[in-house]
Structures are given as structure tokens and as C-alpha cells.
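Exercise: predict the fold of this chain.
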Amino acid sequence: MTLPKGCPLALAAGLVATFAPPLPAQTKAEPKQIEVVGTDYAFLPLPAHISAGPTLFAFDNRGKVQHEMSISRLRPGVTPEAAIKAIRDGAKRGDFVERAVGILIVGPGKKPDGRLLVDLMPGISYVVLCTLKDTPESPRHLMLGM
């Protein structure tokens, strides 16, 4: 049986589906690529501003200890500098971070097997942190400058 275009079809359990014409193909832009380089205990400078849209983050740990590249979206009105200063001064990360976006963890002198694809939102600030510790008693790498 052939149904006219847009004609509802009764399905089991009383559900109704409507056949619609297919959507036109969407254009897919290649994501921007950003390489984040970590050392003991810093990230090499990142661009201060990255335009909104799909962005592929790679991580290269050039340090001698395990590091992470953790990307978080900040609460509205919070700058990365203010968030990092407050956290280093003892404030809770949750007071400034709206949500974690993604994380890559890798051993010394290595790159992870994957990358993070993030759809950066316009007008939103993000921060890259490393919150690992070398030992349970050690300070977090963030406190050491990372």
C-alpha cells in the first residue's frame, strides 16, 4: 500500500507517525583544531579567544608526570582568570564552573588515543585545567600553575 505524502500512518499501540519529505543535506564545516600542550606544571599559552562552533581539542603531555586536560564551561559572567584565582585561593570549583565539558588524561611524554570535539557556544567562557595530584598528599597541578 502506498500512502500520499504527509499522510499519517496508524502504528501499533495507537501511535501515529507522519511521513515527511527528507530534509535538505546540511553543510558540515570542518571543526577548528586546537592543540593543548601540557608541561610540568603549566599549559603552553592557548588562544585567548576561539570562535564559537565545533572545535577539536588535542592534548600533548610534554611533562614528566601524568596530566589531564579538563575543559569546563564557566557560569555566566565568570572569566577564566577570576575562576582560576578563586579556586587557587580555596574556593570550590563548582562555584564557578557550570559544567564539565570533557577530559583527556595521559601519561608523561604521551598523547591520548583520542581528542575532544566540543561545540563551543557563543558568548560563553571556558577554562582548561589540570586537577590531578602527583601523590595523595601533593597539591593539585592547578595549584602549581597548571
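Check your answer against the key: Helices lie at 80-88.
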